[in-house]
C-alpha cells in the first residue's frame, strides 16, 4: 500500500471535484451485490448546498488517487441542525450552537480498500484542527457499528438521537470537545 497524503481544499477546489466525490460516495456505500444504497444525485444535491455554508472546510486523502474525504461547517445558529432531537437538545450543546461554537462533521468517507489504516482518523483530525469551535458534532446513520466504534475510539461521546422523519433511520448525535 502506498502512502496516503492529506490536503485541504478551498471551496472552489471542492466544487470543481464534486463529481469525483460523488463517484467515491457511491463506491463507498455500494452493497455486496453492487447495488446502490445511497443516491449519487442526492449526494450531489446535498454537497452543492453544503459547500455554500459559511465556514465550509474540506480535507481529502489521496495515494495519489482520491481515497477519502471529510468536510463540515458550523451549523446554523438557529439550531436547525438538531431538528428532531429526541428529548430535546442538551443545554450546553444548544448554547454552543447558538453562539457559533459548534463545527459539524457532515461527511467522513474512506474507500473500503483504505479502511482500518488510520486514514479516517487523520482526515477527521486535520479537518478539526483549523476550527476555533469549542465542540465538534456529527450525526451518524444507524445502524453503522464501524463508524460508531471509530467515533468512540476518537474520543467522541453519544449526545442523543435525532429523528428527522418517521420513515427514515435514526441518526445518533455524537459530540466531542475541541478545547485544548
Description of the molecule:
The protein is of the alpha+beta class and 180 residues long. It has a single domain (5-177), classed as Gcn5-related N-acetyltransferase (GNAT) (Aminopeptidase). Helix content is 32%, strand content 27%. It contains six helices and seven strands. It has a seven-stranded mixed sheet, with helices on both faces. The protein starts with a strand and ends with a strand. Residues 32-36 have low confidence and may be disordered.
Q: Which consecutive residue ranges, at least 5 long each, have pLDDT under 50? A: 32-36
The secondary-structure class comes to alpha+beta
CATH names the topology as Aminopeptidase
Number of helices, counting only DSSP H or I runs of 4 residues or more:
6
Q: Given this structure, which CATH class is correct? A: Alpha Beta
CATH structural architecture = 3-Layer(aba) Sandwich
- Strand portion: 25-35%
Total domain count: 1
Round the mean pLDDT to the nearest integer and report it: 90
Encode the helix/strand succession as letters.
Answer: EHHHEEHEHEHEE
E-strand count: 7
Describe the SSE topology.
Elements: E1 5-9, H1 11-16, H2 18-29, H3 40-50, E2 57-62, E3 66-73, H4 91-98, E4 102-110, H5 119-129, E5 135-141, H6 145-153, E6 157-162, E7 171-177
Amino acid at each position: 500500500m502506498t502512502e496516503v497524503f492529506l490536503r485541504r481544499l478551498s471551496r472552489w477546489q471542492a466544487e470543481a471535484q464534486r463529481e469525483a466525490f460523488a463517484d467515491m460516495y457511491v463506491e463507498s456505500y455500494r452493497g455486496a451485490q453492487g447495488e446502490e444504497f445511497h443516491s449519487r444525485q442526492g449526494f450531489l444535491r446535498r454537497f452543492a448546498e453544503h459547500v455554500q455554508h459559511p465556514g465550509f472546510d474540506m480535507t481529502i486523502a489521496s495515494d495519489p488517487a482520491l481515497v477519502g474525504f471529510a468536510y463540515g461547517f458550523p451549523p446554523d445558529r438557529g439550531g436547525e441542525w438538531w431538528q428532531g432531537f429526541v428529548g430535546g437538545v442538551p443545554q450546553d450543546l444548544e448554547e454552543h450552537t447558538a453562539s457559533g461554537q459548534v463545527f459539524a462533521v457532515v461527511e467522513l468517507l474512506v474507500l473500503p480498500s483504505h479502511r482500518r489504516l488510520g486514514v479516517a482518523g487523520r482526515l477527521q483530525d486535520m479537518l478539526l484542527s483549523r476550527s476555533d469551535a469549542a465542540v465538534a458534532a456529527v450525526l451518524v446513520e444507524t445502524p453503522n457499528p464501524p463508524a460508531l466504534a471509530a467515533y468512540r475510539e476518537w474520543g467522541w461521546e453519544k449526545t442523543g438521537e435525532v429523528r428527522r422523519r418517521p420513515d427514515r433511520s435514526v441518526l445518533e448525535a455524537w459530540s466531542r470537545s475541541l478545547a485544548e
